[in-house]
Write a sequence for this structure.
């Protein structure tokens, strides 16, 4: 059985390594518009062969589409046109509504499963891929009722082999939830780094000498790949603007409490933030 | 030689354990307004005895003042009045200007060294104290010219034993730098948690099922102790408001680029954020 991976970056590469680690599939074929990534993936043993996209689509029983979300939206309809009769295709994009909407009336829609394994790190490229990247992480599967039960079972088996926790919601719910829980933290981290780098533009060594672990954990996400994240932000624009506005509201609230010496209000605000301990340890 | 620790929380406790680990000092005496913390510190072997503040001050050769910054500012002048002739006292507060200003004309000012070991974690209390908390972390020493060289050498020896990197700046520089590099990240983390907890107030399980490592790293600081952080924010109010305003400016900039589909501007913004890689790996 041929497994085709379109996009041999961190996510596609890690799925490839994860499947090989579980002895799933016979032959791994891959494609990437970035030759450097493609060659690396070959050398790292993620795939056995690099072949053109059209050939990959026609030869694969399972296709993993792990490229930026604007690319997924663009090529998914044409891939569905050309897949084998019984092939299954799933994507790994960080937004889901636009992608699902694009193929909603495609005759082969049911062979597609929309997924979002939540396991990115700030590093990118096949060089960062790991077979255990997904171990015990969350994976969201969207609009599952629109996929064939048999196609669903293939994808569920793949993610279960990697021990992911599977969550089933609609693509609309996904994009709303994820705008706050993932996209907003990324925007906040990029904005913090922009702020700090502007203030210390001639004194980067000062940052280095003064920073502690808190600085690192809040700016870590700003190391993420712009080629991945620009399309994500655009695809979730409406939700994300709402999330940013809500966050600015809370920042201004804190700022004004501080300006007006409203000690009790600030204390309540900080105690409320502490409630995040009820979400995770 | 008696070492006195005023405030037996995470920082005071970790300095006590660090000094014991290096076999520095003979007898460790401590005090804490929180009986629970005091008893814990005794049981954990951080100190040999809990004694009243006044007795501790009169009996100690080295005094570590590791309580919230408003407390330091309040009791430091009186402690200086009562220390032994050759005693050295240093504080560990996260703001420095108000504290230094408060004792600037005190006749025993030179026995005081103003320090800020940057090694906090979101956990607090003596239960979280570790002898290696400070290992290879940054430590800022402020207005060092106002301290006796001999008092300075004692404090430098203590932090060097714990392998901290020592930085020397003025208390005014400290508070400005730290407002951006530490206090702003804390405010951002608290505001992110306030935002998310408001949106998902009836659906905390949704956060848990969807979050990834990026969510955790950006919200981690919002677990910090309000009793520690409220006085820090108040003491650095002017700088911090400026830092928050600068950050809101950058958040709004991103928001407006997104609203107006300014793809190239967003890309530049994300690339600029990536420059944080030049500060740390």
């Amino acid at each position: 059985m041929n497994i085709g991976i379109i996009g041999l970056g961190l996510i596609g590469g890690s799925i490839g390594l994860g499947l090989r680690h579980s002895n799933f599939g016979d032959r791994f074929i891959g494609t990437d518009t970035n030759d450097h990534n493609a060659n690396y993936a070959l050398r790292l043993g993620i795939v056995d062969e690099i072949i053109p996209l059209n050939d990959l689509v026609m030869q694969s029983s399972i296709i993993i589409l792990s490229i930026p979300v604007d690319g997924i939206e663009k090529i998914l309809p044409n891939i569905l046109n050309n897949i084998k009769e019984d092939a299954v295709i799933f994507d790994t994009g960080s937004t889901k509504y636009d992608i699902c909407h694009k193929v909603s009336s495609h005759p082969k829609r049911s062979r597609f499963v929309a997924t979002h394994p939540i396991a990115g790190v700030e590093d990118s490229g096949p060089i960062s891929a790991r077979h255990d990247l997904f171990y015990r992480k969350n994976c969201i599967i969207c609009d599952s009722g629109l996929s064939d039960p048999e196609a669903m079972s293939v994808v569920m088996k793949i993610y279960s082999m990697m021990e992911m926790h599977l969550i089933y919601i609609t693509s609309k719910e996904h994009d709303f939830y994820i705008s706050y829980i993932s996209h907003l933290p990324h925007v906040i981290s990029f904005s913090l780094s922009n702020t700090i780098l502007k203030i210390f533009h001639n004194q980067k060594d000062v940052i280095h000498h003064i920073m502690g672990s808190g600085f690192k954990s809040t700016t870590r996400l700003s190391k993420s790949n712009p080629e991945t994240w620009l399309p994500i932000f655009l695809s979730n624009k409406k939700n994300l603007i709402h999330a940013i506005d809500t966050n600015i509201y809370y920042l201004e609230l804190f700022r004004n409490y501080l300006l007006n010496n409203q000690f009790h209000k600030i204390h309540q605000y900080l105690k409320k933030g502490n409630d995040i301990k009820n979400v995770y340890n």
